[in-house]
Design brief:
alpha/beta; Rossmann fold; 7-stranded mixed beta sheet; two-stranded antiparallel sheet; 5 helices; 11 strands; globular; binds D-malate
């Protein structure tokens, strides 16, 4: 997968896995990662699916309607890529925190839904429920920060709450932060993500 790896100045820190939104690329979330932890290593990945030329992490049939089969294939593809990258760049595979926005948050949530040890934690900006009707793995000790918009037209309030409930039913520890700026990733929620990280991950 097309990606950037930036070695951190403190190798005891987690590796931040950056997953952009639809139409973005691997550089989009670099400022957010630097805000969250300037000393951590970064693995920033570009989605392998193109929708009218716009990179994404999996196909969709319509806005908010996922191609489930493709979602599953791409979730495992990303998982294998992280495993390989951990060997190539010698980072601790068990200390990876995903930071995703929109489509990138959805594939990060899908990693959590399908694989018990894919991530130590995740920062999900404006995520949706990636799949329904499946049994989640045991997510004990997995820390998840969710930032959502009370007026987000894509990720609705009920769906955000459903995602939180599903993750908590699988024993993940979640913190939910509300904004009211639609689907935008705001500076305030970026700062809230940084505070969460220092409280629950880098403490
Ligand atoms: C998705 O397809 O993942 C969601 O609709 C979010 C987005 O617009 O990318």
């Amino acid at each position: 997968m097309r990606h950037l790896f930036i070695k951190g100045t403190d190798l005891s820190k987690p590796t931040l896995l950056l997953l952009h939104g639809t139409g973005g690329n691997e550089k989009d979330l670099l400022p957010l990662a630097r805000l969250i932890d300037p000393d951590a290593s970064i693995l920033a990945v570009r989605g392998t699916v193109l929708e009218n030329g716009m990179p994404r992490f999996f196909r969709r049939l319509a806005e908010g309607v996922f191609d489930e089969e493709d979602l599953i294939v791409r979730t495992y593809e990303l998982h294998r890529f992280i495993d390989q990258a951990a060997e190539t760049y010698s980072f601790d595979r068990e200390n990876v925190i995903a930071i995703g926005y929109s489509n990138g948050a959805n594939i990060a949530a899908s990693l959590l839904f399908h694989l018990p040890k894919a991530l130590r934690g995740a920062v999900l900006h404006h995520p949706m429920v990636p799949r329904r009707g499946i049994r989640l793995p045991d997510l004990t000790r997995t820390q998840v920060f969710i930032a959502a918009g009370s007026n987000d037209p894509i990720c609705l309030v009920d769906e955000t709450l459903e995602l939180q409930t599903l993750l908590e039913s699988a024993h993940a520890e979640t913190v939910l932060y509300w904004e009211n700026q639609g689907h935008r990733l705001t500076q305030k929620e970026a700062e809230a993500a940084a505070s969460w990280y220092h409280k629950y991950i880098d403490n």
